[in-house]
Amino acid sequence: MGAAEPLRSVLWVKRRRCAVSLEPARALLRWWPSPGPGPDAPGADAFSVPVSEIITVEEADTHKKCHASGQWQKMGQPCAFTVHCVKRARRHRWKWAQVTFWSTDEQLCHLWLQTLRELLERLSSRPKHLLVFINPLGGKGQGKQIYERKVAPLFTLASITTEVIVTERANQAKETLCEVSMDKYDGVVCVGGDGMFSEVLHGLIERTQRSAGVDQNQFCAKLVPSPLRIGIIPAGSTDCVCYSTVGTNDAETSALHIVVGDSLSMDVSSVHHNNMLLRYSVSLLGYGFYGDLIEDSEKKRWMGPARYDFSGLKTFLSHHCYEGTVSFLPAQHTTGSPRDPKPCRSGCLVCRQSRQQLEQEQTLRGPPDSEKVEEWHVICGKFLAINATNMSCACPRSPRGLSPAAHLGDGTFDLILIRKCSRFNFLRFLLRHTNQYDQFDFSFVEVYRVKKFQFTSKSLDEEDHTLKDRGKQGLGQICCDNPASCCSAPRSSWNCDGEILHSSAIEVRVHCQLIQLFARGIEETPQQEPCS
């Protein structure tokens, strides 16, 4: 019997007699209790696991696990094989599970073992050799321990070989990716926070563009996607990228997504200033509140992750607003909207259709420069914050994120403008990030789905003569004249995925599905657990 033919037998799971079926056409392994003499039809108590979510299959040691009960003594010496697979848990978590099947028919066990292994060998998307970067200082400094305890055993079980580099300085991962040969690797894994992921991202994109002869500094350049996937093992302070693409910041879950070879295409934004590439962004590009927050927190790294809470409170009390001009090009190719009730999920139809529509639109339009004839929207004013999000930016503290309906691969980002308002109203807006209410349902908040935007800050010399002094430079920097209103300031910095950009005048464009992750997107609902 070959791997393409259905297989159905009666085997034992623990002390229960079960009917077990394998349908290669559906690539599904199923088993259910069958107390009768023959294999019954599956009922509500049936269990199943897709072949794509089986980690490995191995012959079990029956001498150690053989039951001493009269049941097994009557059956004789059993033969067994163990299926290592994915088990779904609560809140989008995956767990490593094992199911052992027994039988006294040794030939039957070997048939099952051979058939399952043949099916697993056909899964070409699974990585065989990975380059792993570990940031030992990220988050709470547990990156190395997390990898050794939760990730390395799974890689070994799946016969994945690795080359591990524990970084010793900033940008070491980026420099390594730009210099070493990557021909022997099937992907790159980063163990750390969003900063570590950003290093790997920049290294792979820069390497790919250099090999393709693409000038990254050209704003209209069409960037070439990297052929290597990136795996993220969360070990940072926020782990926004991992949480937004998997639905949890659990290391074991991320490791299992890598093992089974999941793939998720994701947009990347390029940030430019004066015909120079500043950085790439995949999550948050924030000016004003989030820019001031990250700039202040960088001065307090000695506080650890608590620095974000302290700097967040300080920035909120400062309540600075910034005057400038935002110009953006609305996205016409996507069917999605920033106010959609349904978020981006695994197998997202909006992302698939948007990419197809964008490719057709570019084919009809011709060269990128011809986009200049399209209508740009211009908005001037005073803003507490300007945020551009490629993804929801969800995290444990903000489960829905800054833009709950943002899509991972639709070739757009959501541009969120928070105009000048009172401290109380701004607090109401911030609190919406932690609950289920519509965070855009305020008169001072505007949100647009765009594919390009520019921002220019009004210089200090040109500001209105009524602007007040920024106040005392101590904790809070609260406006003394009117505590409830904004305090205008000359300019802020940009928070680009946790890194500071000091150039306030920037232009940004999104590159549709430029990179791939070892992920599948957040699944809609947890499926039935595969193990009894």
Automatic annotation (TrEMBL):
It is found in: Cell membrane; Cytoplasm. Keywords: ATP-binding, Calcium, Cell membrane, Cytoplasm, Kinase, Lipid metabolism, Magnesium, Membrane, Nucleotide-binding, Phosphoprotein, Transferase. Its EC number is 2.7.1.138. GO terms for biological process: ceramide metabolic process. It catalyses: N-hexadecanoylsphing-4-enine + ATP = N-(hexadecanoyl)-sphing-4-enine-1-phosphate + ADP + H(+); N-(hexanoyl)sphing-4-enine + ATP = N-hexanoylsphing-4-enine 1-phosphate + ADP + H(+); N-(acetyl)-sphing-4-enine + ATP = N-(acetyl)-sphing-4-enine-1-phosphate + ADP + H(+); an N-acylsphing-4-enine + ATP = an N-acylsphing-4-enine 1-phosphate + ADP + H(+). GO terms for cellular component: cytoplasm; plasma membrane. It is a peripheral membrane protein. It is an enzyme of class 2 (transferase). Its main location: membrane. Residues 125-275 form the DAGKc domain. Its cofactor is Ca(2+); Mg(2+). InterPro entries: ATP-NAD_kinase_N (IPR017438), CERK_C (IPR045363), CERK_PH (IPR057465), Diacylglycerol_kinase_cat_dom (IPR001206), Lipid_Phosphate_FormReg (IPR050187), NAD/diacylglycerol_kinase_sf (IPR016064). It comes from the Eukaryota. One of its GO terms (molecular function) is ceramide kinase activity. Catalyzes specifically the phosphorylation of ceramide to form ceramide 1-phosphate. Acts efficiently on natural and analog ceramides (C6, C8, C16 ceramides, and C8-dihydroceramide), to a lesser extent on C2-ceramide and C6-dihydroceramide, but not on other lipids, such as various sphingosines. Shows a greater preference for D-erythro isomer of ceramides. Binds phosphoinositides. This is Ceramide kinase. It comes from Marmota monax (Woodchuck). The lineage of its organism: Eukaryota, Metazoa, Chordata, Craniata, Vertebrata.
